[in-house]
Amino acid sequence: MDFFSRQDLSRRNTKRLVLYFGLGVISTIVAIYFVVLVIFGFASEKSRTSPGYQERAPRAEFSFWNPQVFLWVTGGTLAVVVFGSLFKIAELSRGGSVIASQLGGRLLNPNSTDPDELKLRNIVEEMALASGVPVPEIYIMQEENGINAFAAGFNTSDAVIGVTRGAIKLLNRDELQGVIAHEFSHILNGDMRLNLRLIGWVHGIICLAFIGSVLMRSQRFSSNRKNSGAPIMLGLALLLIGSIGAFFGKLIKSAISRQREFLADAAAVQFTRNPNGIAGALKKIGGYAYGSELQAPAAEEASHMFFSSGLSSMMATHPPLAQRIKMLDPQFDGKFPRVQLDEETKNRAREALSPTPPKVKNVPPPILPDLLGGNASGRARNFVQSAGQPSIAHLNFIGTILAAMPDELQLAAHETYSATALVYALLLSADKAAQEGQLRELAKQVPEPIYKETIRLLAHVAQQPDKAKLPLTELCLPALRQLSPNQYAEFERNIQLLIAADQQMDLFEFALEKMLLRHLEPHFKQVPRRIIHYYALRGVAEDCAVVLSALAHVGHADSAEAAEAFKTGVRGLNLDVTLRFAPLSECGLERLNTALNRLAQSAPQCKKTFLEAAAETVAFDGEIRTREAELLRAIADSLDCPIPPLLS
């Protein structure tokens, strides 16, 4: 199953969960309705038997159907559940950093010199760059001695990776890499959004139990105890029904989570080609006194998000440790080695500072789709099909790039103000005349220290190969997220100024800017959620034509050859409509931006077809250059499709 099919499956799973949740709410409404009927009947009977009661009307027969009561119960229950769910989801929609903070995490200091923290940062960065997703923020759960980790967020733009202190202290590089690969699998498979929705939906039902508890407490301390029986009964009923509803909600959450954990373990092995890494981490959990235990009060509701769960039996959100290990290591005898913190932390510093992942020994390299096929067209299609399926070869490829990257650039990427200067340097034109014009405009807009830093970094950036520029930009993301809103507004304005200042239509610069701002905007402003509007490419045919025309012009200097490249791409769309090859003058950046925004609202399989057509267009001349491959990756990123780098 490829990335696009997994996205479709994730949406189907969400719909199935909505159905289960709806059935649960309906059952809750029916239960509360009958409880209210019984309470009304009890109150009515009690009033009839009270002294001085005079019956003024014939006694009505008791009926199980009372439309008025049913409407009140339905409206009230739905209001509580929906409001409670939406409130929780809105709270979590601010990004994974909210969850990380609630769980007691602290943001990893970009200037940290702690060997274990540097080891963790290196692993996360390498895996993000190899996966084609933006580098997430990293949180350390400093007070947690257990071995655990999680990924949280609504999408790749606001994702965070959280790791406990026990994990970074006890796990060696291979084991920690296996754990992080497991969490990246959840990011790539769209599990994070589902996890947060599960928390929100279960919270809505729990609100009923909370209201019941409040009713009971209020009557306990009420001075008027004469008529307190009905509210106490209602409160008790709401408490029980809400608790039972939450129990079944957690059962659904656990069942779905257990299935996905097996898939994430398998994906981690596929990524790292080292089953001993993740298996070793699981074995240490089993042999460690603290296991995967978590102390944070919010850990229970987020238990399904973690690498390993501290819960047991029917409510466990993860499969048993021994079962997970057996899937990875068939020779496992069920015995867990005893683990102690002091023993495991020896000799960590040298290993932690290693900038590249160690080579995996005695494991044959995977057969990679983008290396197969004797022609550029086949490579282009397989390049797109590698979306969401990174491998150890991609990991080693990124490790090589980072190892060759000057320390000055890597240090700048991790410091907020230097990172802004680094992005400015990356967007400067290679043409000297155009570059001078850009620098003149930049000098008017930024403080002198930032301008001087841009000039200093430009000398290093100019020496970097094209294959290093997109990863270098992505490395800057965590540091740039630390800008203030006003600083970000200035940064965004300066980027757009630099792109317009060289008076050239550089599609790569445009795609780089779009990728950068798309992943930063959710941290500084309210961004509307993308909803699928197009389930067939016919609805966005003109947008496809604009982007394919621009790609044809960029990759082929000869206009006749560009037209043929466009036709090749259009054939890959499989549309029964005629699309016009747009001249370069009609492929302006504003029009391209509109086209990509509309394409981003299409279904996953439509995106796949379009990206394959775009790859065919680029590969028409029989060659896929690094800059063209990186351009395709940036365009795919704007459509929420992370593609690993093209292997040289």
Q: Can you describe what's shown?
A:
By secondary structure, this protein is mainly α. The protein folds into four domains: 137 residues, no CATH class; 185 residues, Metalloproteases ("zincins"), catalytic domain (Zincin-like, 2-Layer Sandwich); 117 residues, no CATH class; 102 residues. Helix content is 63%, strand content 2%. It is built from 27 helices and four strands. Helix 1 runs antiparallel to helix 26 and helix 24 packs antiparallel against helix 26. It is globular. About 4% of the residues have low confidence.
Number of strands: 4
Distance between the termini: 25 Å
Helix content: 55-70%
- Low-pLDDT runs of 5+ residues are 346-374
β-sheet strand percentage: under 5%
CATH domain class name of the largest domain: Alpha Beta
Structural class by SSE content: mainly alpha
The strand line-up of the biggest sheet is: 1-2-4-3
Give the mean pLDDT.
82
* CATH topology grouping of the largest domain: Zincin-like
Question: Which architecture of the largest domain would the CATH scheme give at its second level?
Answer: 2-Layer Sandwich
- The structural domain count equals 4
- Rg from alpha-carbon coordinates: 29 Å
**CATH H level, superfamily name of the largest domain:** Metalloproteases ("zincins"), catalytic domain
Number of helices: 27
Shape: globular
Task: Please outline the major beta sheet.
Answer: 4 strands, mixed
Could you outline the blueprint of secondary structure elements for this entry?
Layout: H1 3-48, H2 67-92, H3 96-102, E1 106-107, H4 115-131, E2 137-141, E3 149-152, E4 160-164, H5 165-170, H6 173-188, H7 191-220, H8 229-272, H9 275-287, H10 321-328, H11 341-344, H12 348-352, H13 376-385, H14 392-404, H15 407-413, H16 416-426, H17 432-445, H18 448-461, H19 466-475, H20 477-480, H21 485-501, H22 507-524, H23 541-555, H24 559-573, H25 589-599, H26 604-618, H27 626-638
Parallel strand pairs: 2-4
Antiparallel strand pairs: 1-2, 3-4
